[in-house]
Amino acid sequence: MDVSDYILQLGKQARHASRQARALSTDEKNKALHSIAEIIQARRAVLVAANSEDVQAGRERGLSDAMLDRLILTPERIDGMLEGLRQVADLADPVGEITDLSYRPSGIQVGKMRVPLGVVGIIYESRPNVTLEAASLCLKSGNATVLRGGSEAIHSNRCIAQCITDGLAAADVDPAIIQLVTTTDRAAVGAMITMPDHIDVIIPRGGKTLIERITAEASVLVIKHLDGICHTYVDKFADLDKALSVSINAKTQRFGTCNTTETLLVHQEIATQFLPRFETQIASFEVELRGCEQALAILSKATPASSVDWATEYLAPILSIRVVESLAAAMTHIETYSSAHTESIITQDYSRARRFMTEVDSSSIMVNASTRFADGFEYGLGAEIGISTDKFHARGPVGLEGLTSQKWIVLGDGHTRA
Amino acid sequence: MDVSDYILQLGKQARHASRQARALSTDEKNKALHSIAEIIQARRAVLVAANSEDVQAGRERGLSDAMLDRLILTPERIDGMLEGLRQVADLADPVGEITDLSYRPSGIQVGKMRVPLGVVGIIYESRPNVTLEAASLCLKSGNATVLRGGSEAIHSNRCIAQCITDGLAAADVDPAIIQLVTTTDRAAVGAMITMPDHIDVIIPRGGKTLIERITAEASVLVIKHLDGICHTYVDKFADLDKALSVSINAKTQRFGTCNTTETLLVHQEIATQFLPRFETQIASFEVELRGCEQALAILSKATPASSVDWATEYLAPILSIRVVESLAAAMTHIETYSSAHTESIITQDYSRARRFMTEVDSSSIMVNASTRFADGFEYGLGAEIGISTDKFHARGPVGLEGLTSQKWIVLGDGHTRA
Prior knowledge:
homodimer, 418 residues, Aldehyde Dehydrogenase, Chain A, domain 1, Aldehyde Dehydrogenase, Chain A, domain 2, seven-stranded parallel sheet, five-stranded parallel sheet, 17 strands, 44% helix
């Protein structure tokens, strides 16, 4: 079968299955999740063997160590996958929640009910555990799913998908609710992102190139994460001890994550007090510092930052530092260079915190806290399918609620419009 | 200047002005709205003269009476526009509302803050009052706006836009927050819908052809309303008196609106009791009835409905009627033919009402109420910029809240991630 015909068939099956998916009770969904976990537990040896095929093929194709590491399913990772399934089963079901139901002057009651989106397409790269994680979140939120993983993990993914299919069937749930694209043909991606009649939303997870390509070519809504160029701004009214611990944590707690601070903005009135202490304290983390002219005059070991630095997500032990003349200048820098992911102000001044919080337009705005907190688990979502840097539908960490929308409900008792 | 350069310039100005727009206080926005109202009131004669130019040009170009009627600004309509401005000023400001702020185990507080979308592009047809209505809703919700009205109303729109500009300036608000496209070149629309860097969302208002074209060509998110193929389903456990008044109201209260019922579904067990009474009572409204085979056997004056009827939004005194064998069959009919706008079930049975409400996937689901209630004013939104038949961001009637999104806020006091 032609790839686009094959994807179209998956899409039609998914659309059809989405009717059952949205009508599943919480109990039915949880039973299905546990049933999938049991089957994976019973087939661990099969899964490890399938994964070994991927790892060996990857070695032969010369994948980097980092990519091989993402690919491999150790016993601990399989345990983690199973634990993840149970955690999703334990999460509250967002579907059907009714809010804001109130009487109107006409006598009708009007409110909103949370409902699944429909069919979610997930396009991701080499990590096979995403297959199970994404599938479980979509199932719990009442959606049908079409999963398209990277070709490097195809044997692992097929094995996991078979466990999902058998787990759903054992729980009397239509297996078409969760389908894996089993071809490694790259044309499958192009087909998935251009059939809005069958797939309601695409969530890409992977490198920036993949995501930019999908966004440019999709005719389906995309919930995406592009850059994480996050800022910590140390205000002139900052408590410098808090500023030190927060900004160092924001840069060094992990270097490769999207919520790591990449640029430190420092108010000029406290720069000469703050920056030397900062430089001393961050020294043990071996972070390369790149500064603006004013910062260079204060720091002892920094190199000059070019305008490219302000627009770069390093994902590495590098930090750019800029001294700013005012809160307004800090906000203008953020407006210009931020990827609208996460920004934090360190200040003891109430009015300035309030202004920063209101006026800065990023998905997470923090006061006196490390940007590293921008995360679905830290926010209490229980799980995270991604972090959106878009403005619509879902902003910031996306959990189960981000996989739903709200419809209106109206309760009358024979009411007619006058 | 080239049209696309001109639109690009408007877009850049709007993006820049959106920073001021989102920082405006409620009081500043309300003063600006009143200031615009005062200027329009002072220039009524100028506005009427400008509108007369449009009407005369429309007559010369042979516009239909319906189109000329939409174009003309009577004294009552101008009063209505002014009253609308004052009502928008009276609405609660959605911007800055913080919800769900709660402590997490780490000690940070996490919540959500409602924020403007940014820059909203409105593309509409001949009614000049939309210019003021859309502008006022976007301003109140803290957005910058680019308005592109129909060429038939260009003189009226330019006059209204000048009043807006002067009103904003008099209230010390950047006039670039609300800009009108002053060229009638159709290429302006194509340019507006393909500059996601400068316009965040497009709201088209007008005929289906316009909206389909915009949706197909836009690279910007579109909040749109396509069809209104709404259903009323009279269940076998319906109170037939309520069923009669609700279904007749849903069809006849107005024929040309999107929330008018176009197809009546009737459970076969009550069809012989219900349909003759329905036919008698709807007779005075001169509605043409088209029925399925079973309905035709009961109705005395109906003609056969073809499969085209189930998929047609009549916007006219025509109703298609289908007898169904079960609640499930009614829901399958709706799933197949509905435009996902509004559906109502008439039943006294609790479980069947609950099931219909949960499983039917349309933007408004009603129980024992007329579909004609699907309206921003009836729902208590205070105003309505449109009704969305999309699933994302805004579903159903879209008021001020639909012109906003939510960002996360995190309050700490020197908190770092462990």
